Amino acid sequence: MDTVTFRAEVQGQIEEAGRADIVVGIPSFNNARTIGHVVRATQAGLAKYFPEHRAVIVNSDGGSSDGTMEVVRNTSIADFDAILLHHRISPVSRMAFPYSGIPGKGSAFRAIFEVARMLDAKACVVIDSDLRSITPEWIELLVKPVLSGGFDYVAPLYHRHKFDGTITNSIVYPLTRALYGKQVRQPIGGDFGFSGKLAQFYLTKDVWDSDVARFGIDIWMTTTAIANGFKVAQSFLGAKIHDAKDPGADLGDMLYQVVSATFELMEGYADAWVPVRGSEPVPTFGFEYTVGLEHVNVNTARMLKVFREGLVNLREIWMDILGAGDLQEVERLGEAGDGEFRFPTGLWARIVYDYAIAFHQRKLPREHLIKSLLPLYMGKTAAFVIEVEPLAQHEAEEAVERLCQDFENGKEYLLSRWK
């Protein structure tokens, strides 16, 4: 196993820290505007809930030019008594260092795992640096199931606006759940707790020079934990409020990154998912409550335009991947008016499985293959938005649940063609 080589001053910081019970990693790239709040919430959570534990905050930065690392170095909580229940017995150490390696979140995570290994940490947390909704309680909810409950991996469970997280809702959650049989609602959430043992296991995996490490690290962490039999839970953290994106505007690259990583993991873990049927809930910590959510604007007209252009430009590719029957169904969808546009969930599940099979059979160069999925995904997402626009949040969640059932029911279709 190659290890990360740290610069001398970083190595010195690690040696000075000696050991830590808890390591909190905050990967960043030009997040000076939000990271101060994230660090303060982290410090408050450690002081309030883990005062007897030695903790280290690690900011692993991807070359920010906006002063992100300076914000981390200079952030500390003034007026400790006013915010916190008691003083910390041992102070929180902070380390900020630029990571080396391929630009991308994976390189940052690898550095954090390596620090956790060197400090012999019992529990680790990684949190996004663009969060505006993090509270000190997040630290407790991500760490405690590991330290006290014997869990190895704690995924986040958030309430998100019904139009936010559409790649998760329409592809990653239903597919991961149907494949591996665990109902982890946010498999690419960005904020996770995990054991020191799992951090060391991650370091043994040979993915660090691959696209998975660059872009698909969240789904890789979740899948690797589940497929290798680690104990998995989730914790309810409240609202996920971050710099949300219009799913119709700028998710093409993300779709490629996440879907290619998910399909790549299917290749490596077929032995784990082929025997699984159905799915089961995972233990959930935290008190679930209703939260106010920021509205996410979605341009469905633009998405349907992309879908209809795909019908013209990608017909031959879709014919090869989907077959004549499903392509005919897709073409019929294109005839509906914008307001009446619906995308049957069973058809969508088959399309995602067809793409996984085409990836497995290397029918096309993978980038061309997954980019040809984009107009179909746009059509599916537009249909979801039109369907759930008048519905309450919990009713939109029921629509996601129905989609998951169709993925589970369609798994035999995947298996019959996978071999």
Outline the structure in words.
The structure is a single chain. This protein is an alpha/beta fold and 419 residues long. It folds into two domains: 8-285, Spore Coat Polysaccharide Biosynthesis Protein SpsA, Chain A; 300-418, no CATH class. It has helices at 8-17, 32-49, 68-74, 80-83, 105-118, 136-147, 166-180, 196-203, 211-215, 217-227, 252-268, 270-273, 300-313, 315-333, 345-360, 366-371, 374-388, 393-409, 411-418; strands spanning 22-28, 55-61, 93-98, 123-126, 153-159, 182-183, 192-195, 232-239, 280-281, 284-285. It has an eight-stranded mixed sheet with strand order 3-2-1-4-7-5-8-10, sandwiched between helices. β1, α2 (32-49) and β2 (55-61) form a beta-alpha-beta unit. α7 crosses α18 (393-409) and α15 packs parallel to α19 (411-418). It is globular, with a radius of gyration of 22 Å. It starts with 7 loop residues before the first helix and ends with a helix. The model is unreliable at 79-88 (pLDDT under 50).
Name the descriptors.
419 residues; Spore Coat Polysaccharide Biosynthesis Protein SpsA, Chain A; 2 domains; globular
